[in-house]
Amino acid sequence: MINWKEEYKKLYKCLIAVTILIITALAMFIFTFTGVTKKLQDKDKKLTEQAIEIVDLKEIINERGEK
Asked: Each residue of 16-48: b (16+ CB within 10 Å) or e?
């Protein structure tokens, strides 16, 4: 006959293991996404600074051209 208590214990242990794996995977995804977001923000900041410098250089060139 099947010992249901033992089977439930095995199922419970398996459920706990799967839950831990899911939580670990979710944490890894969140940390990875956070890192990628930070890198994209840094890159966007650099591009914005470069765009501002280009606009400033264009203004300087236009001022010299007017003189």
From this structure: eeeeeeeeeeeeeeeeeeeeeeeeeeeeeeeee
